[in-house]
Amino acid sequence: MDSSPAERGVEEPASWEDLCKINVVPSDLFVKFRKEIQGIRVGVNLEFYNAPVNDFRGKLVLKPLAPDRRWKFIYEPLHQDVRLLSKKIPVTKFLNLQVGIGHSFQMNAIGWKWKLTTCLGGDGISRIRNKTTLGLCPGIDFRFGWRADYILPEITGGLGSEEPLFNMNSGKFEASLDRVEAIFTYPDAPCYVLGE
Question: What does the alpha-carbon distance between residue 196 and residue 190 come to, in Å, rounded to a whole number?
């Protein structure tokens, strides 16, 4: 009686479902309302998180509209946190540095943080992270945060060794839609002076 491939120590080829996974259910949903007032963008963010735990955050965000904006102010009334963040400073073509200082009213503590971010790299595998914006109409935009993790196919072999003459690892691809943002922007209303 023939034994199965698993009993003989031979790996069965993986199915396409195991090699390629795409998740289109976002874990984060954001609704952002923005108003431009005299060179400052005032934003109210409602952020709903689904994974790893359900959470909700409300934020008030102030940021200058100038192209060389250097800061962003964030106030979270529910968590009683205030933060002042620098813009992302490019260190290399793919690496950015951001620093910030904050105060927690609940803990009565002041602290600072720094963060190095990149659109490439991951936890032992190759990763691409990106945001794509789709303008629905003037004042209404949708932004999608997505990521793709991949392991490239690998072909190996050997002759006169324990390795087989030809061996192929078919690689892996996993993509997911992590965040969906609906952004509503109200333009700066012109200021009229009476008597003009």
Answer: 14
Q: Which alpha helices (DSSP H) does 76-193 contain, by range?
A: none
Measured CA to CA, the distance from residue 159 to residue 166 in angstroms comes to: 9
**Which 3 state secondary structure label does DSSP give 188?**
coil
Is there a contact between 45 and 61 (Cβ–Cβ < 8 Å)? yes
Q: Which residue has the tokens 């950015």?
A: 96
Which of these, 59, 21, 8, lies nearest to 177 by C-alpha position?
A: 21
Helix (H) or strand (E) holding 18, with range, is helix 16-19
Q: What is the mean pLDDT of residues 44-50?
A: 92
Q: Quick one: pLDDT at residue 76?
A: 94
Per-residue burial over 153-172, b = 16 or more CB atoms within 10 Å of its CB, e = otherwise: eeeeeeeeeeeeeeeeebeb
Q: How far is CA 88 from the centre of its chain?
A: 14
pTM: 0.68
Nearest to 87 by CA among 96, 79, 78: 96
